[in-house]
Amino acid sequence: MWSRAVNLLICKNLDSESFINAFQIHIYDYGYPEKVLSDAGSSIVSSLNIIKTFLNSTDVNNYLKEKNIKTLSYLTCPPNSSYLGSIVESLVKQVKNMVYSSISKNVLSYDQFYLLLREINMLINKRPIAFQPLLNNENIDKSVPSIISPEILLKGYEVPSLIIAPHLHVSESVTDDPDWIPINEQSDQKRLVTIYKKYQKVKNKLHSLYHDEFLTNLRELSTNRPDKYKSKSHIKLAVDDIVSIKQEFSKPYFYPIGIVTNIRENDLGEVVEVSIKKSNGEIIQRHVTNLILLKKASAL
What we know:
This protein folds into 3 domains: about 15-80, no CATH class; about 100-220, no CATH class; about 240-300, SH3 type barrels, CATH 2.30.30. The protein is about 35% helix and about 15% strand. It has helices at about 15-30, 40-55, 60-65, 85-105, 110-125, 150-155, 185-195, 195-220; strands spanning about 35-40, 75, 130, 145-150, 240-245, 255-265, 270-280, 285, 290-295. The strands form 3 sheets. A 5-stranded antiparallel sheet has the order 8-7-6-5-9, with no helix packed on it. The protein has a two-stranded parallel ribbon with strand order 1-2. The chain has a two-stranded antiparallel sheet with strand order 3-4. The longest helix is centred in the last third of the chain and has 25 residues, at about 195-220. The two termini are about 40 Å apart.
């Protein structure tokens, strides 16, 4: 959330097993998290419930306390509030754009697709999310990076991600001719170049997309809306308030009415999510932006 970094992992299925395995690999790379925020996807919610039940067992809980490790907590976005995950969804859109635009109709093997995905992961974490101030100041420290990227925020420096294998290197000699093979190469290298010819073509598109479109658009997005980070006020709801519940494709006078039974606040003391009891007794959760305050409890 604070670095805008991504970690792309391949899941072969959309079940709990695949998610938990990927989450475990993420913890191997970045450590045990204190808090997890997610959407309300069924496989994610069920997987996190499995993890939380295990972590809350007596033995595990005692171990965490002994090591002074906080118990993992997780929050999901309320129903009908997918826009709350806009930060994540914007990153998903960027990743999909890079994957689809570079691969196009080419079919890669699993190993080549995994390699490409890791390169996309590397490139997207090198994207500029902010620029150093005073760039036209001649006295500025030249060792300071001109841009701030997720990679620099995570590691504190720019990682030299070099191509170390000749068959993975893309040069101007790459051609679409299916019979083209570079001359004066050893047999093993020639074999690898032949196997990875399609991968090189895809990778060439990826780099072109990143530098010509992706990077340029990010620079524009970082400067074209100076007020987009201004804080927004929320309705200060309280228990027993009567509210109208917004529904998509429905006129306001058809909105159902309910009474607030519980509230959830953020770190700033703002009410962001509430539990509502409808007239039929059903209890639902909604974000405050999906509600219209009809009458305060103090006015009842």
